[in-house]
Queue: 2 jobs
Job 1
Amino acid sequence: MSRKHVLALVVALIAVAVLPNFLKSYGVYLMTLFCVYLMATLGLNLTVGYAGQMSLGQAAFFGIGAYHAAILLKLGWPFFAVLPLAALDCFVVGLALGFPALRVQHHYLAFATLGFNVLVYLVMRNEQNLTGGTFGISGIPRPSLLGFSVDGNLAFFYFTFVSVLLLGVVLWWLLRSPWGRAFAALRDNPIRAESLGINITAYTLLAFAIGAACAGIGGVYFATLVQFIEPAPFHVASSLTMLLAVIVGGSGRFFGPVLGTVVVVLLPEWLRFMQNWYLAVFGFAVVALMIWLPGGLLSIPERFAKRAK
Amino acid sequence: MGDLIQLIVSGIATGAIYALAALGFTLLWQAAGVINFAQGEFVMLPAFAMLFCVAAGAPLWLAFLVACAAAMLVLGVGFKRVIVDPLIRHGVIPLVIATLGLSVGLKSVVKAGYSAEAHPFPSAFPAGQFAVAGVNISYADIGTLVLAGAIVVGLQAFLNKTITGRAMQAVAQNTESARVLGINVPRMVMYTFLINAALAVVAALLITPTYLAKFDMGDAIGQKAFFAAIIGGFNQTRGALLGGVLIGVLENVVGYYFSPAYKEGVALMLFLVVILFRPEGLLGKAEERKV
Amino acid sequence: MTAAEKFLEVKEMRKAYGAIKAVDGVTMSVGPGEIVGVIGPNGSGKTTLFNSILGQIRPTSGAVEFCGENVTGMSPLELSRRGVGRTFQTLQVFGKLSVRDNLIAAAQEFKGSLSSRLFAAPDAGLGRHADEMIELFRLKHVAHALAGTLSYGQQKLIDIAMAFMAAPRLVLLDEPCAGVNPSLVDQLRELLVELNKTQGGSFVVIEHNMDFVMKLCPHVICMVEGKVLAEGPPAAVQANRQVLEAYLGN
């Protein structure tokens, strides 16, 4: 990253860290929700943007993470035991789901994840004994770190903010390693990549499983943010929204999900005045955006550069 | 036994409707590489269009023709020119997102602009049943079977026996070779979009009397069309038929003999089983590695 | 060739597309370190033969043995693990990666395991080797440019350099000189000779440029209509009457 970009990043981080102090509690909630959602979309970007796969089930993993938190935290498990378990479970399920789908033809992962999400949603809704069905699970406690409680909205925001930063650093480091080059190669020219020993199936499977684990982590934070979990946020529609966030921001670009998540989390608030028509505008705006900017918002600088030539 | 036969016949009829939507969906994928997540809305919109025409006093058959023409224009030509053509060269994903946005947009326009309620829709067939060998079969089911069957047979004949149809198949199987052979590929692809639009209108005509016209009626249909296409085999048009009929029949059988609550999950279960154990679909061919 | 020297063996390879016999019973063998040329008019099945050997398409019948192991129908991935590499008839580079990254990508999968690579340095320890290859192919001035922005000739060099990064024991080159200007052709030939000496791999080269083939390959096979028409030292094949007729027509 260039000096300019690093500077911009630091300024942005400081701004985000300071801003909640000037917002009312709903504003703080939105910013925390943004951080939580970003965990899932960062993971999805790995699957979609870097490994080139289409996943239509990220919300299912988000939900699995959330229900892990809801059930286990209420049983008294410590937060930092639930978090890795949720991540691990999502990772394993991701491997199990991706393995048969990817072995055959690569676009089958899209179908498998769609079916998986529909199934998971049905289970969440019907298995009253486990998930509380449509009544959900309420009263999820917020964690306490070394004696410090992060119950308060502001404290919880900072906790989540630092967590998503850490997740971002981990993913950045993963993409800087030779794995990042392998992803770029297999997306650029899969035929050549395979003849050079790049195991496309293994890499895409791992990218998918890691992306799923990220969503699981986000789900745990989501549960502790809203402190009440029911199936609705984990419907296929949410998976589509997450995919939207990744694409709108710019898939395959590291900060794409940041922009995309801002759009997806904040847009409903800005368009609230449209009431019934909000979704209609949103839907067609997405179509227009795709036609105009298929590379997402972060491709705008390149478009200007091209036009300047 | 009579019950079972009734369920099966009725199931085949419903399945045939799913198959029509799945057929168009499969054709779009094969010929143009388009996964149309707004397929359900392509059924929903003509349903409302026909409803408006009927409310304005037109007979159903006229409403149907008007809707067909409008659908071919807007959902066929319009969809291709405005959305698919600009996006197709950027890969599958931007196009998928665009169709998702389209789906949400169309649903919401109808909901906000017209009504969130479910509206009754006239049936193309007379009400009532008749008995055959002790089994009661409704006129609607028989009518659906005959109409859907005729369309399917007609479409297959068109695809297999006419020059245009075979050209369309060539484009679906290998676009580059088709181009080299001098086939007008863009025109064949356009025909595919037109056929898809028409099939959706027929599906609307046949299913809306039962489902009722509602802004979100496309959700269930779109999902079942999608599942049916994959179950049957995404690279085979006959697969869409088998998938649709299989879903229709099994839904009825499971709903009756087990529980109505499970009816919802049938299509999904079939889909998951196929995806995991026979991903190329029941009638599909395992695809060769591409060079 | 004695049994001990048998390195690559292709036995009765056939690939048919319906009634069209693209490859119709080809038998050939290559020894370690050998350079073999494959010539023949367009459509004689040379590339199809390569694709059948290299797992890009499934042969109709026939067998391929590499160092005594039956590798018939193995995927390109499995073959690459056994030290088999190739270049393609059309340019196949990673256009959005830099030249240096293209070369590193071409060899990084052979260093360590999938998991060890996660913790390795960003260049997978191949930076120096990539730079050496860049020097050899005279691409130093564009080492950090995106491969897709370079000229055809430069991309061709990258394409070929990539095939040799992991020092494969056997490389199949499909028309390395296609579309390349004459001065570059000589440079290519010298590079291949050099690589053959330093890495010791065997090469099988499809080429239309007769001069190139005759100067590079001590053994030449001529294919016509899916079959082997003649084989032997280049001068003999070139003088073979049937070969001349196949090229010039009757």
Note: The radius of gyration of chain B is 19 Å.
Job 2
Amino acid sequence: MTWFGAEIDGPMIVVRTIHFAAAAVTVGALMFRAFVAEPALRSQREARAIVDSQIRSVAWTGLAVTVASGLTWVLLLTMSLSGEGPGEAVMSGALRDVLNLTQFGLVSQVRLAFAAVLAICLTLQRSALSRWIGLGAAVGLIASIAWTGHAASTLPKLGYLHLAADALHLLAAATWIGGLVPLALLLNVGRKYHLLAWASLELDAVRRFSSLGIVSVATLIVSGLINAWILVGSFRGLVDTVYGWILMLKVIVFTIMVVLATVNRLMLTPRIALPPGSEAQCYALGRLTRNTVTEIALGLLVFAIVGVLGTLHPSAHLVR
Amino acid sequence: MRRSSLIGIIPLLLLFATGEASAHAFLDHAQPRVGNKVAAPPREVTLWFTQKLEPAFSTITVTNAAGERVDAGKARVNGNQMSVSLRPGGTGTYHVTWRVLSVDTHTTDGSFSFEVGQ
């Protein structure tokens, strides 16, 4: 299918979008647990148990979708390389060739191993060690996506910088956008359960997430600039190509997300510190929850845009 | 050089993101050079691409003026460089047809010709 002169591969874009979103939610949930939920709720066993259970549900669901979509991605690629249908591509040995003879295939095997380690750690979740190993496996799972994209084929030595920037970009995006899901669930806990001193715990968690978000946004900006410098390369590359326009759309959506996050931090978060049950506090909490859900929707849009971008020629190779 | 252009980077300061963008390998240059004339039939043809290639899924065929294939053996791939040895094929227009898979899983293909003359 051709769209504005660019070849669009529908199924591949859908599968990639689902895969990025699911991986981000999986990693974001575990980063949220390690850096927001556990520190904020350390003193409250009941609250910690409820939130931990929510986070593990999110992580398990995310992991299942990540693995399913990842396998589908490998299969779709094999089908497009061999020109065969799904059954034929597996039986004819084409899938085996892609898995063993291409970097993408080898990286996919490594990523599946990360997913397996993470699944084991989520099962043995009582031990602190297994939680940290699980977090490490999740970080590996998302960062290794860099080795399936353009950064993997950029020639050295720029290629090493590109891989590093891309891996950090993926991790930061997952931490922030993926972390919004457990945040939205946490904000809803007060409505479902009556917990002691919940308001102050909630405020602490929101502040911690906000700080994590700031670090993530800063990382996204710096790594994004590096990637754009390598892939777009010039102002003409930005404004004269389909790739450039879609990239600008991504930046616009990202900017809207940052504006919402800033409103959350500067205006709404201080107000949820007001006396619990007061009108101002309830309004702020409701607004914060709605903004968070809006950010999640925008984050999904970003992943869809990235799903499209991945199938296009970067401007740097079209514009000199 | 586009990469050292600071003017290009200033608008890029407005950019916050890119990410999982992929590329296709384009032919950067070849030996013998695209469209050029060489005095004697070359022993091999070498192509340089803009991206790193996957050896298992990158192929090249070379035909001489009579339409006979003159590439001998499997294409050798090293990073972004692909080459194939040639059998003697006489004079005239040689056609090179290539199909490559870049490491980021995109396929591109193309062709070009060069002259072998007296």
Note: The longest strand of chain A covers residues 2-3.
